[in-house]
Amino acid sequence: MNFNIVTIFPELIDSYINHGLLAKAYEGGLISVNTWNPRDFSEDKNRRIDDKPFGGGQGMLFQAEPVIKTIEAIKIQDKTHVVFVAPHGKPFDQKTALRLKNEDNLTIVCGRYEGLDKRIENSCIDEVISIGDYVLNGGELPALVVMETLSRLQKGFIGNEESLLDSFSEGLLEHPQYTRPEKTIYGDVPEVLLSGNHELIKRWKLKESLRITYENRPDMIKDKNLSDIEIELLNEIKDE
Ligand code: SAM
Questions:
Q1: DSSP class per residue in 16-32
Q2: What is the structure's pLDDT at 160?
Q3: Is 58's C-beta closer than 6 angstroms to any atom of ligand 1?
Q4: Hey, CA dihedral for 162, 166, 172, 173, is it positive or negative?
Q5: How far is the CA of 58 from the centre of ligand 1 (A)?
Q6: Tens-digit pLDDT profile for residues 65-81
Q7: Strand, coil or helix: 136
Q8: Which of 126, 195, 206, 222 ranks highest by number of CB atoms within 10 Å?
Q9: pLDDT of 170 higher than 90
Q10: How far apart, in whole angstroms, are the C-alpha atoms of residue 43 and residue 35?
Q11: The pTM is what?
Q12: Percent residues over pLDDT 90 in the chain
């Protein structure tokens, strides 16, 4: 999958993709990442790309022309789906990630200051995505969040495909996990996980997934079509 990131701070993207599994995917050619700086498309002699908003208001906005020219330049090279990351967008979630992971080429536009001149959104953005109900200084972190989530979903990104059965994949949060040693002063590993009884372990994992989801994300339980066993385990949790 190819990512084009439109940003006035390309070094933020470049430094992040040089670590961990993302670096491995990048070096191995599973993903490619190109940064595009709208300043390179500014006609201003100082490469300026921002100006004050009409009608008053705080701060500065990205001007339409340099950003639109940047996206047009990307489109000359590649057929691409264009996303703008912004607080007013639709919430980014695993379902959106599963849809977007099938794009061969994704362009992510990062705002700064107070955001973008609306004409950019009107003329060349396919969808607007928010990573949460809070406001960051810029779109680079959201772009990296989207890029890393989609990269994880590419076949071959994680050696063991079972690792992709993370939170959200089955409509529930992931159950707690433990590693060695079995006993510590901070507590012991639940006995069932050491029992070797695969049926009991499976039941425990499902119950703990349901418990953590019920406690932290009751909205997910409401949205899920629960199976008979899930209803039984949830009732047990409620009776405890
Ligand atoms: N004035 C804007 C508003 O109130 O919605 C906030 C602009 S914010 C300071 C600057 C840029 O950061 C945005 O254009 C966007 O690209 C990015 N950004 C900030 N918070 C974000 C979020 N929750 N999700 C996605 N992008 C975000």
A1: HTTSHHHHHHHHTTSSE
A2: 64
A3: no
A4: positive
A5: 14
A6: 999 999 999 999 999 99
A7: coil
A8: 206
A9: no
A10: 19
A11: 0.95
A12: 94
pLDDT at 116 over 80: yes
The phi, psi pair for 57, rounded to 5°, reads 115, 160
Closest CA relative to residue 171, chosen from 91, 93, 89? 93
Sign of CA pseudo-dihedral 81, 85, 90, 95? positive
Ligand 1 mean position, distance from CA 223 (Å):
28
Instruction: Please compute, for residue 40, the number of CA atoms within 13 A of its CA located in the half-sphere on the CB side.
Output: 13
Take residue 52 and report the two structure tokens written for it: 């004050």
Question: For 172, how many CA atoms within 13 A lie in the half-sphere containing its CB?
Answer: 21
User: What is the rounded CA–CA span in Å between residue 81 and residue 101?
Assistant: 11
> What percent of the chain has a predicted confidence (pLDDT) above 70?
98
Q: Work out the average pLDDT over 135-148.
A: 98
Nearest CA to ligand 1 atom 15: 86
Catalytic residues: 87, 114, 152, 166
Instruction: Show the tokens assigned to 110.
Output: 């990062």
Q: Which domains does the chain have, with CATH numbers?
A: 2-151 (3.40.1280.10), 165-239 (1.10.1270.20)
E strand intervals along the chain: 2-6, 32-36, 50-51, 61-62, 81-91, 105-110, 127-130, 183-184, 187-188
Which pLDDT belongs to residue 81?
98
30-60: pLDDT as tens digits: 999 999 999 999 999 999 999 999 999 999 9
